[in-house]
Amino acid sequence: MQSAFVELFPDKVGYSLSVKYSGKFRGYNANIRMRGSDIVVNMSRNWRGVSPEIQKGLIQELLIRLFKVRMHTINMDLYHHFIKGLPKVAPKTQSHPVLERSFERVNAAFFAGMVDRPNLRLGSGVLRLGTYEYATDTVTITEMLLAHEELMDYVMYHELLHKKHQYSAKGGRHAHHSRQFREDEAKFPRADELEKELQRLARTQKSVWKFW
Ligand SMILES: [Zn+2]
After folding, report:
1. pTM of the full predicted structure?
2. Would you call 86 helix, strand, or coil by DSSP?
3. Which of 46, 104, 158, 161 is the most exposed place for a label (fewest CB within 10 A)?
4. What is the CA(169)–ligand 1 centre distance, in A?
5. 36 alpha carbon to ligand 1 midpoint, in Å?
6. Residues 6+ positions from 144 with CB-CB distance below 8 Å
7. Using one digit for the tens of pLDDT, what is the confidence trace for 141-171?
8. How many angstroms separate the alpha carbon of residue 22 from the centre of ligand 1?
9. Helix (H/G/I), strand (E/B), else coil: 100
10. By C-alpha distance, which of 208, 115, 206, 197 is closest to 156?
11. Which residues surround ligand 1, an ion (CB under 5 A)?
12. What is the DSSP letter of 172?
């Protein structure tokens, strides 16, 4: 996998790159560390069976973040294409009755019922009120929203927009909240007020109002 590095940075010499597969990651997560001239990429065991060309794209994504440069390769395209296809094949194993009703309401009201149900998971963390993970097709919503149906639906809507819009990656910068995304988001009734309510709620819980 040294070639992933050399192809990006032919002029940087003396670096060594190694890859380790680890069981500590969910889905297809990975990280990168550099100590001196040794670069280690740790990736989820799930990557083992994936084409080396796609793995190379992942490594290059991590490398350009590490070196804070903007570059683009065919392997990185392959990687993004792979990630975007994962929701379709991800096994559906997790659900929660309250989140399921929220999903049904939001799907019917805003997506004409066209969104396939993702995995639905209750989160205990307060740092993030909601997330959408492409690799496992999972919407996680913090349990603190269970008692606030309208807010829960609004966060559910936001996360389902991620599933719908996916993301665009250009030169290593990921636009998760594109202009189109924000325009869609604003279609939720009382979106502005709900944003403020979420901020208030987050403050009382000493958490940071942030969703991904
Ligand atoms: Zn988001």
Report:
1. 0.74
2. helix
3. 104
4. 15
5. 35
6. 126, 129, 201, 205, 207
7. 999 899 999 999 999 999 999 998 876 655 4
8. 27
9. helix
10. 115
11. 212
12. T
- Taking the centre of ligand 1 as the mean of its atom positions, its distance from the CA of residue 11, in whole angstroms, is 37
Whether domain 97-204 has CATH 3.90.550.10:
no
User: Residue 17: beta bridge partners?
Assistant: 39
**CA separation for the pair 130, 152 (Å, rounded):** 9
Contacts (Cβ under 8 Å, ≥6 apart) of 11: none
| Helix 191-204 vs helix 149-165: crossing angle, to nearest 10 | 110
Compute, in angstroms, the gap from residue 88 CA to the centroid of ligand 1: 20
Please give the distance, rounded to the nearest whole angstrom, from the Cα atom of residue 136 to the centre of ligand 1: 16
Give the pLDDT confidence of 98-120 residue by residue, as tens digits: 999 999 999 999 999 999 999 99
CA distances in angstroms from 210 to 1, 124, 144, 155, 190, listed in the order given: 36, 14, 14, 10, 18
Rounded distance from Cα 158 to ligand 1 centre (Å)? 6
The CATH 3.30.2010.10 domain(s) of the chain lie at: 97-204
| pLDDT tens per residue, range 164-193 | 887 665 544 566 788 888 999 999 999 999
Q: Could you tell me the distance, in angstroms and rounded to a whole number, from the CA of residue 103 to the centre of ligand 1? A: 16
